[in-house]
Design a protein that fits this description.
By secondary structure, this protein is α/β, with parallel strands linked by helices. Helix content is 60%, strand content 10%. The strands form two sheets. A six-stranded mixed sheet has the order 5-6-4-3-7-8.
Length: 644
């Protein structure tokens, strides 16, 4: 038994997935994509701590206490928890709650299966909370940046919401064209943004250099709680906004790798953020109390001289657009993972880049997010109101990540208790404190991500359970393959060509084949029973992709395995199949699909209302023809009814 973690290494990842560029180039790319969310937090996090719903006093004890809290939160939550520990728990190089869930399910031995049900529910709820986060992040980020216009000219106030909505509509409108070209500018813009906020912070730190040591001193955080008590606890609900986006480091690990993200954070991003926060604090402390109170309404933009304030607003707006883009792209990736892992029905996916398979666009998710983001802006009207809704989703997801990490440390990495318990105790203490502080904001807007999370969780679990029941009912009525082949192959008329019957079962005869023989009374010369499986790994190696069995009499059973990050293209896969007779030619191949019609019943399994919800989801799912990239003129659909 070892004390040190032994995570699975991504060495066997297929070529082309993980970028093989130099460390510096990858680290610069990570600055543009991974750190957009946490990088734009200084625009509103420090302000909300003082000017939010709890109206914290802006005295020296409070300023230094909040700065110390921000620093140590970054050290514990981001540096220690995510960069040092959680990012070592990669699933073949991929990160994120669902990837971690898949890793745990795949690696846990049979003796630990008692964990499974609870772990799956936690992972799914983390995924559900992410959708709430992906709605709030674009709204609060863009709105807070555009609000900077009021620091340039107060008369711009009435135009803030229309301008923010215009920017957001434009952002969602371009998603279908792909982000490759726009993404090339993300890195340089964000690097310039981080340098700018560092310089602005240094300008004010220069007059009060002692503030650096005071920020690093945790005793200031302790004194803050001793002096302000309950108000200090409530302020934690806003302090946590400084680390929103920490979970993105883990989720985006597959694009850049653990080391480049860690280097970017420690060497460049975290120092830039802390310089800016300390600059805001130093500026407020150097002011007359009356002026300081007015400045706390938007301290980030007041860091800049008046002549530079409008350029800063424009730069901050670009940065928030980039942060929003990263979250939107993340929503697409999470949806694809959830779809392949069986939690979401098939949806239409468009690949926007021939070179990078990870660049995808899901229209229904894009437009649903756009509608919700615009409604959020119109309903909450300003970023301060939105801030109340923001923390719940983030702290909830972070808490769930710690729960999943508990399983990883004890079951997968086999850490000894004397090492694992103190580490987990620290993480749980911080997560629970921040989550509890944010629960106080539920009446002021925190209800929104909880409502979205509950709705998404209901959809995800209903689809997973309904699909499981439907497959079980269909398998109960399946005919054994050996019996069918012996009886049907000798009596039915054989016609030239290949028939491919798609089936979810790895044994038995699919309903579509039985219906075809019953109505058309013929069998093709070559009959392929095809099952597509999505494994609990991001990418499946080529040698493990195919499993072919010759059943005799021209019947074959083929299983094609994909990872949950891979595109499912059946014709392309069949072109690589050997030892199955002549090479597959699409003009000689017919694909037979079964389209199920669900009949709700009182059978045990799911409540009637969930059966009806599952039936609606089934009717609106993307067709198997489009999902598996089958040629439309070679597909035959045969209907069947299933009672669950």
């Amino acid at each position: 038994m070892s004390d040190s973690p032994a995570p699975e290494q991504p060495a066997d990842r297929p070529a082309g997935h993980h970028p093989q560029s130099g460390l510096v180039k990858l680290a610069a790319g990570a600055v543009g994509i991974v750190f957009g969310d946490i990088g734009t937090s200084p625009i509103y996090a420090f302000r909300e701590t003082f000017a939010g719903h709890h109206h914290l006093a802006g005295g020296g004890v409070e300023i230094l206490g909040v700065l110390s809290l921000i620093f140590w939160s970054m050290m514990i939550v981001v540096t220690l928890k995510y960069v040092t520990v959680i990012m070592r728990a990669d699933n073949k190089g991929e990160g994120g709650s669902l990837a971690l869930l898949a890793l745990i399910n795949r690696k846990s031995d049979s003796g630990k299966r008692r964990w499974s049900a609870g772990i799956v529910l936690l992972g799914v709820f983390a995924c559900a909370l992410f959708y709430g986060d992906s709605m709030i992040t674009p709204a609060i980020s863009v709105l807070s940046a555009v609000e900077g216009l009021t620091t340039v000219e107060t008369s711009f106030g009435p135009f803030v919401v229309p301008i923010a909505i215009g920017i957001l509509v434009g952002l969602f409108a371009i998603q279908g064209h792909g982000t490759a070209r726009v993404g090339a500018f993300f890195g340089p813009i964000m690097v310039f943004y981080f340098i700018t906020i560092s310089v602005l912070g240094l300008m004010h730190i220069a007059g009060s250099p002692w503030i650096v040591l005071e920020t690093l001193n945790p005793w200031n955080a302790v004194q803050f709680f001793m002096a302000d008590g309950w108000t200090a606890f409530l302020a934690m609900g806003s302090v946590v906004l400084a680390v929103t986006g920490a979970e993105a480091l883990y989720a985006d690990m597959g694009h850049f790798g653990r080391k480049p993200i860690g280097v970017s954070w420690l060497v460049f991003v975290m120092p830039a953020l802390m310089l800016n926060y300390m600059g805001q604090g130093a500026m407020i402390l150097s002011m007359d109390p009356a002026v300081a109170q007015a400045t706390l309404a938007n301290p980030f933009f007041f860091l800049a001289p008046e002549a530079m304030r409008l350029p800063l607003v424009i730069l901050a707006t670009f940065a928030t657009i980039i942060a929003s883009q990263a979250v939107i792209s993340g929503a697409f990736s999470v949806t694809q993972q959830a779809m392949h892992l069986g939690f979401i029905p098939r949806l239409r996916i468009q690949h926007t880049s021939e070179a990078a398979m990870g660049q995808i666009y899901i229209p229904v998710i894009n437009w649903a997010l756009m509608v919700m983001v615009i409604l959020l802006v119109l309903f909450f009207r300003n970023s301060s109101n939105l801030a109340a809704a923001y923390g719940i989703a983030v702290t909830g997801a972070m808490f769930i990540d710690t729960c999943l990490l508990t399983v990883v440390l004890f079951s997968l990495w086999k850490w000894k208790p004397w090492l694992a318990v103190p580490v987990l105790a620290l993480f749980f203490l911080v997560d629970i404190a921040y989550f509890a502080a944010n629960l106080m904001k539920v009446p002021d807007g925190g209800w929104f991500p909880l409502l979205v999370g509950l709705f998404a969780f209901t959809l995800l679990t209903t689809w997973a359970k309904g699909r499981q029941l439907m497959i079980k009912r269909m398998n109960e009525a399946a005919m054994p393959a050996t019996i069918f082949i012996k009886s049907a192959a000798s009596s039915a008329t054989r016609v030239p060509g290949t028939a491919v019957f798609m089936t979810t079962a790895a044994d038995g005869i699919p309903h579509a084949l039985l219906h075809n023989l019953k109505h058309n009374k013929v069998l093709h010369e070559r009959v392929l029973l095809l099952t597509v499986r999505i494994e609990d790994v991001p990418y499946v190696e080529e040698e493990k992709t195919f499993h072919l069995d010759d059943l005799g009499q021209g019947f074959f059973r083929l299983i094609i395995r994909y990872g949950f990050m891979q595109e499912t293209n059946v014709p392309a896969a069949l072109a690589r199949v050997e030892s199955c007779g002549p090479q597959f030619r699409m003009m000689d191949t017919s694909f037979f699909l079964a389209r199920q019609t669900l009949i709700t019943s009182s059978k045990p399994g799911m409540a009637i209302w969930r059966e009806k919800l599952f039936s609606w989801m089934l009717r609106n799912a993307e067709s198997a023809m489009e999902f598996f990239k089958l040629p439309p003129n070679r597909v035959v659909e045969l209907g069947s009814q299933v009672e669950i």
